[in-house]
Structures are given as structure tokens and as C-alpha cells.
Design goal:
This protein is of the alpha/beta class. The protein is built from nine helices and eight strands. Helix 1 packs parallel to helix 2, helix 1 runs parallel beside helix 9 and helix 5 runs parallel beside helix 6.
Length: about 210
Amino acid sequence: MTMSTFDILAISSRRLCPGKFLRQIEKIAQAQPAGIILREKELSEEEYTALARAVLKICEGYRVKCILHTFVNVAIRLNCKAIHLPLVVLRQEAGQLGFFKTVGVSIHSPEEAAEAEKLGASYLTAGHIFATDCKRGVTPRGLPFLQSVTEAVHIPVYAIGGITPQNAKMALASGAGGVCVMSGFMSCADPKQYLSEFEKALRKPFSAGI
């Protein structure tokens, strides 16, 4: 799969954020990544709804794509037309996601990637590619896995897991259409500078292509 641009998605994690979560989200939105995925799937539906409402307002203010996670009904109620789902949820909801313009799906094998594409996924996240503290002690799947996924589908694949400005170019060379970054965005003091490090390393402009 050949991509003319290389996108970066920020994924939220309140537990990795040392300061005020919504302030960090605002700083990330100011940096203008291709999108922000509000993960936080351990929250109750009521808690997630309240947080999603606040994050959507921030993203709208900076014209950054906000992608809600798992809670399909919450996204519909809040008129958010972008959702990211575990494959098991996509299987349950397949054929009932016509409301959404963007449907992202997490996969862990080329076979799952092909299945997700057939079920209507707009893009995929595949990982974890490199070693990461988020999955300490778990062997990363690596770049050959990423390449096998990108070759199995015709939709963008975003590499996730241990992504840094220093190794993102290897993900691009393996066919990825972009990367997802969680801890880097959640913990950095200056997301705009952090994003620029990716741009300098890749020497390619970012584009909100999802």
C-alpha cells in the first residue's frame, strides 16, 4: 500500500498524563496531529460521555479530528462521526455503522486486518510494533508483521506501540500510512515540538487523511 502522506494520531491515556488531562488534550490539539483518539475505554458510559463532550469541544475549537473509542452509542448521541473499535465490537456492530464516516479498528494479524476491511473499517491500527512500557515484558510483533498487515489490505494501516520520531520512518518503509502515539503525547511538555520531531525525522508533511 503506497501512501503519499504520513499521518500521526495521538491516543489518550489519563493514567499516563502527569498533569491536567484536558489541558494536555488542548495542547495536543494545538499541535495539530491528524487526529486524537479518546481511548479511556475503562470508564463507564456515563463517565465517558462527560469526558467525550469536553474533548470534542476542544478538538472542534482547533479543528482537529476527534475519534471516540468503543462507545458507539455515545458517539452517535454526541454526533461524532468517527469511532475506533476493537475487532470484537466491529463484528457485533457490522452493518449498523452507517452513521460514521470513519471507522478505525484494532487488529493483531493479517487475517484480522482482512476481516476488518471486509466489515467496513476505514483504517486499522496494528501493533505493538516496537517494545513499549505499556506492554512491558511482551515481545513486540515487529516490522515484518506490520508489512504483512499492510500487504493484506487496501486501507491505511497505522503502526502502534513504542513509536518514536527515531523509528517512525521504519514503519513508513514497511507500508504504514501513519503511526499512533500514546505515552509520548500524554507525557510531553510541548506536543507541538514533539510533533515537529516526527516531521523533521520523516521530512514529509502530515495530513489529516483518515
